[in-house]
Write a structure and sequence with these properties.
Elements (H helix, E strand, L loop, with lengths): L6 E5 L8 H15 L3 E6 L12 E5 L3 E5 L2 E4 L3 H4 L9 E4 L5 H12 L3 E4 L8 H4 L3 H7 L2 H10 L4 E4 L2 H9 L7 E3 L15 H6 L6 E6 L8 H14 L3 E6 L5 H10 L6 E5 L3 H10 L2 E4 L8 H8 L4 E4 L4 H4 L6 E4 L2 H13 L1 H16 L3 H24 L4 H12 L8
Parallel strand pairs: 1-2, 1-6, 2-3, 6-7, 7-8, 8-9, 10-11, 10-13, 11-12, 13-14, 14-15
Antiparallel strand pairs: 4-5
Helix pairs in contact: 1-16, 9-10, 9-14, 12-15, 16-17
């Protein structure tokens, strides 16, 4: 094997599933493989037939469905924890801290290879939604944050998609390892030219002003609150429409809220849509939004920006790093501000056009192929400089200093 070609192990509970994290992991794996390095993905129940680059290798480790709306696959491959089968790996990249992430950690320790990880979503923010009783107990007691600290402190380097996500981890005492911020990036697919006319016809939108909320329909996304806000928005702008794109556990409760406010003719739940239809929806929309208070990054905002669509989003973790206030959209602190900003954008065509130009420029800074090149540099840096420091148990201050010096050379990374 040429020494300049790396074998990189990706360990993730999600890869072929439908979620922002899965999309981020999949995009990065494929982009790195396109650079000529070999990427080995370890994930449960990988769907067959997914297109993949030449240097991307899929290692399905089994699993079973625990959710269908959206599909959630769970795997607990304990038998693999102690018997690594892939001793050719040069470095491991962990994307989720449980089950398969623990397997990757165990393999890395056994093989004596470096370990980096990307922290996408705090377990405590989702456990009570998807594991109703036990999840709520683990979240309220602080067990899940303690578990994450225990796992992530074993890494050579931790990355997060946004600086505010790093702030969140530091608030929960993730002090032992260097943490860098680097965007997840978006595929070139989202920059292609489309006209969106078919969407207006399909959803009978005519010339209406369109607000789109594309996300998993679940409690933490606060979609019911956005529906409530849209009641006032529609009263102010009668010729407006809200498209709710996606599926999830809150579909029915959101539908009831729409009926409660008598907005059936003015709010559409599209359900799952293809990537191409979503792209056309971004192009059709006048404004996109995301009103959750903890996001890793909010990739849907970047995807819509690539089509020149300005956004209104909660001034919370992740989102506040993606929306450039008054340049690519608006950050809001409450529903009243949300309503006012959407109304402002609907009414002011010139402002929307100005923000649209800024959105396209800003989105280009997040192209996934450029992000992949940076990750290759991170892997080499970790292998050659960081891992030896941890292996020989050097003071953590030396590792932090090394990372500080490294990121000075790459403006896209913050530390």
């Amino acid at each position: 094997m040429p020494k300049n070609v790396l074998d990189i192990g990706f360990f993730s509970m999600m890869y072929s599933q439908i979620s922002g994290i899965a999309k981020a992991v999949r995009s990065l794996a494929e982009a790195i493989a396109r650079t000529g390095h070999r990427v080995h993905v370890f994930s449960p129940k990988i769907q067959n037939g997914l297109p993949k680059p030449k240097n991307l290798f899929i290692h399905s480790i089994g699993g079973f469905r625990v959710g269908t709306n959206p599909e959630i696959i769970f795997s607990l491959p304990i038998h693999n924890y102690f018997f690594p089968e892939h001793e050719f790996l040069d470095i491991s990249h962990i994307m989720t801290p449980v089950t398969i992430g623990v397997m990757g950690l165990s393999w890395s320790k056994y093989l004596g290879i470096p370990l980096v990880g990307t922290h996408h979503s705090p377990l405590a923010y989702y456990s009570d939604t998807y594991i109703p009783i036990a999840g709520k107990i683990m979240s309220k007691t602080g067990f899940l944050w303690a578990w994450e600290r225990h796992i992530w402190q074993k890494f050579d380097l931790v990355s997060v998609p946004t600086p505010s996500k790093k702030e969140l981890l530091l608030e929960h005492r993730f002090f032992k390892n260097p943490i860098i911020s680097l965007t997840n990036g978006i595929d070139d697919f989202y920059f292609q030219k489309v006209d969106g006319n078919d969407i207006r016809e399909k959803y009978n939108l005519g010339d209406k002003k369109v607000l789109v909320y594309a996300s998993r329909q679940s409690p933490e996304k606060n979609i019911e609150k956005v529906v409530k806000a849209f009641k006032r928005i529609h009263k102010e702008i009668p010729d407006s429409h809200l498209l709710l794109v996606g599926t999830g556990p809150s579909v029915q409760s959101i539908k009831r809220r729409i009926h409660w406010y008598k907005l059936q003719k003015h709010v559409t739940q599209t359900g799952y849509v293809s990537d191409m239809e979503l792209l056309n929806i971004y192009k059709t929309a006048d404004v996109s939004c995301l009103y959750s208070w903890v996001e890793a990054e909010g990739l849907v905002l970047l995807e819509s920006m690539a089509q020149g669509t300005p956004s209104v989003g909660a001034n919370g973790c992740g989102i506040k790093d993606v929306i450039r206030h008054k340049k690519t959209g608006f950050l809001v602190n409450n529903l009243n501000e949300f309503e006012n900003r959407v109304i402002q954008l609907f009414k002011d065509d010139d402002l929307r056009a100005e923000l649209s130009k800024n959105c396209k420029k800003y989105a280009k800074m997040h192209r996934i192929d450029e992000v992949a090149k940076i990750w290759i540099e991170i892997y080499k840096f970790t292998i050659n400089e960081l891992y030896p420091l941890r292996y020989y148990k050097r003071p953590k201050e030396e590792r932090f200093q090394k990372v500080f010096e490294f990121v000075q050379k790459i403006p896209s990374i913050s530390f």
